[in-house]
Amino acid sequence: MSRATDRRLVALARKGGGVLEPAEAVKILERPDAVEHLIAGGLWQEALPGVLVPAASVVTREVRENSVRWWDDKAMLSHFSAARREGIWVPDNDDAWVTVDITSTKRDVKGLRVIRSRAFDITPRTDGRHRWVPPDRTIVDLASFLTRNQLDAVMLNAIRQKKASAAQVRAAAQPVRTRPGISQLLELAELWTPERETVLEGRLHEDVLSVVPCGVQRQLSIESPGRRRTARVDVAIPELRLIFEADGLYYHSTDAQIAADQLRDRWLAAMGWQTIRFREGF
């Protein structure tokens, strides 16, 4: 093979995220065994079976993820790979992860975890180079591989970034609700409901009453001078100018919600009230 041909192949690989499409190799070399021929020449190696990268390249997780579309055009990046694609926090993992249909003959290879699923009727997200499972289903898929604390952190990160809502995750879990970890996921998703806020407030009120049996008020309205602004607080002890707030995840988890809470706390502090917040999940 001439140097000019090799340079042409390398240029194509660079355009493909470091990966050479097998069909392009066959086309340029004009031989059906182009992949085997290039490997035998020692200048190319397989990132995944049948998908080539230059032999001098380090086959990283990202390179394998870039290779998936040529390895199986129906496979979708999933689990940890799909979460990273969306910018959702997940524990570090060196493998690329994909999901394929239950009928697929594809199996795990070095550096690539292959999950075969009966629930493969998924509309993927794409950037033109990669196809990956949407965030709500990704969180459902991860439930079988994460601890409760890790899953809680993934949910919090995804919802804060508005990648998925708890309601969307609950809906995505229904077709696969018998999987390991799904019952735990559904328990966590129930924390992200308006009704949960009322439950937390009631518990906080009871806890305060158990320590201070008199002078405790629930849903107290506090007005600024001239009644230009009013704040309704969860639990308060007016005599002590002390406020207790029960912050559930539904109304008190995004950056904007937390910033609004802090602004209100400063406004109340300016009028002599101290606010103590109990945040669920923090």
SSE arrangement:
Elements: H1 3-15, H2 22-29, H3 34-40, E1 44-48, E2 51-54, H4 61-71, E3 76-77, H5 79-86, E4 96-101, E5 112-117, E6 125-126, E7 131-132, H6 135-142, H7 148-160, H8 166-173, H9 182-189, H10 194-211, E8 217-223, E9 230-237, E10 242-247, H11 255-270, E11 274-279
Parallel strand pairs: 4-5, 10-11
Antiparallel strand pairs: 1-2, 3-4, 6-7, 8-9, 9-10
Helix pairs in contact: 5-6, 6-8, 7-9, 8-9
Please characterize this protein's 3D structure.
This protein is an alpha+beta fold. It contains eleven helices and eleven strands. Strand 1 and strand 2 (51-54) form a beta hairpin. It is elongated and about 90 Å long.
Name its key features.
elongated; 11 strands; four-stranded mixed beta sheet; single chain; three-stranded mixed beta sheet; Endonuclease, Chain A; 282 residues; 11 helices; 19% strand; alpha+beta; 3 domains
Short description:
The protein is of the alpha+beta class. It is 42% helix and 19% strand. The protein folds into three domains: 3-57; 63-189, no CATH class; 194-279, VSR Endonuclease (Endonuclease, Chain A, 3-Layer(aba) Sandwich), CATH 3.40.960.10.
Roughly how much helix do the residues carry, as a percent range? 40-55%
Following the backbone from N to C, one meets helices and strands in this order, namely HHHEEHEHEEEEHHHHHEEEHE
Instruction: State the secondary-structure class.
Output: alpha+beta
Q: Per DSSP, what share of the residues sits in E-state strands of 2 or more residues?
A: 15-25%
Uncertain segments: none
Q: What's the arrangement of strands in the largest beta sheet?
A: 8-9-10-11
CA-CA gap between termini: 60 Å
**Total strand count, please?**
11
Main pleated sheet:
4 strands, mixed
State the shape: elongated
Whole-number count of domains: 3
Number of helices: 11
Indicate the radius of gyration in whole angstroms. 27 Å
Mean of all residue-level pLDDT scores:
88
